[in-house]
Amino acid sequence: MAFKELFSIIPNIFTSFFKAINKRLKFSITFKTTTIHTFSLITSLILNSIVIIVGVLALLVYQDYTSLNRNYNSIREKIINNDAISIEDPLLEFSTDNQIEISIFNSQKELYYTTDDFEAFTRLKENFEKINISSANNIPFFHLINQAEINDNIYYIQLSKPIDSYINIVLISVAVVGGLNLILVISSAIKLSRTTKKMLRPIDNMTNTAKSISANDLDRRLDVVESHDELKELAETFNEMLDRIQKSYDQQNQFVSDASHELRTPIAVIQGYANMLNRWGKEDKEVLEESITAINSEALNMKELVEKLLFLARADKKTQKLQKSEFYFNELIDEITKETKMIDDKHQIICERNDSVLIFADRGLIKQALRIFIDNSIKYTSAGGTIKINSIGSLSGLTITIEDSGVGIAKEDLPKIFHRFYRCDKARTRQTGGTGLGLTIAKWIIDNHNGSIEVESTLGQGTKIIIHLS
Predict the structure, then answer these.
(1) Using one digit for the tens of pLDDT, what is the confidence trace for 270-315?
(2) Which residues make up the CATH 1.10.287.130 domain(s) of the chain?
(3) Domain 325-469 is in which class?
(4) Please, which residues have CB within 8 angstroms of residue 463's CB and are 6 or more apart in sequence?
């Protein structure tokens, strides 16, 4: 039980010790790993050494016990075969030859004969143990006591063997085992330290790379060619994180650059007309009206751009909320179709199918998304062209199609039309207006209603937008 409790306490002692040290001092992982391994190895070696030394001692004691038993049988035979007068010389000779002390006691446990007159050999305790250890003249002795019946008389024969040599054996064993253990611990600590440093080298590389990365140097990555363990996965994850950061940073820079560019044009126009007003507009009514109209138009464009930028900023921060409610989608399509016909008399606005479907969505945002798609169709469809708006209900959900007979979109531009500030034809955009943010906003609205958008388009023939809402 004592050993079991000791084994259970030792790990707790080491754990508490390292926690206390770690709170006060900061050590590297290599140092911690080497120290913990070294202490664990020392503990294991100490326990193993104790077991080995105790085992050697037990073996020696067992050998002495066996030897004394054989000596006992020999002495008993000598006593039986010799008379009492001539027994002393054979016993003394046997004692000298076998390096043991012999004491014989009668049935009353009184000394009958001894080869040495020290107290340990001349007295026998009343309640003696068959095997015991005592000291005589500062020398430890191992005693074996057996009861013998000789010529109908009871005798107690005590054989004693010095075990001072055991101490020398233990000291030599401790010195040898301790020296070997010390060499093993030192070599193991050195090897483990080197191995740990080599294993943790990718982490050092990560640290150095992370320190060297700045806003102007986001293209640096960790080398994962030489790694083939868990650290490789960590390095790849770190590189993927840097890829995402660089992508976000590039998008942010592009966003700021595009927004600045979009704002620069109306500001320049407003500034130009303001200068013209300052020079001639005070006296020239025609210049005054032209300037006021242009300034109002550019101010509205700036307001629209800022509102869209704020919408996307809220969307990026996930603070743009949806106000969902139940409504009949066919009523929204009728409303949008009617309003489109009122503001646009240059195109044929047709609604061929409008199924009555009750949905749960943000009515205002859905209308905004549909209006964006329809406005694009109006801008890029020549006068007299056709714009079809249909809503088809099914068991899987609702499908809305907005199809025009406009200029269409080039195949290489289709994957990019929902990117912020992207324009397929920048020259035409200056004529038709727009910020390049509308489709981005429309896609965000549909995505956040668990919907999807498909775009089919052919240059010179038109574009078809297919929206699925479940």
Answers:
(1) 888 788 777 776 677 777 788 888 888 888 878 888 888 888 888 8
(2) 214-320
(3) alpha beta
(4) 377, 380, 403, 404, 406, 408, 409, 455, 456, 457
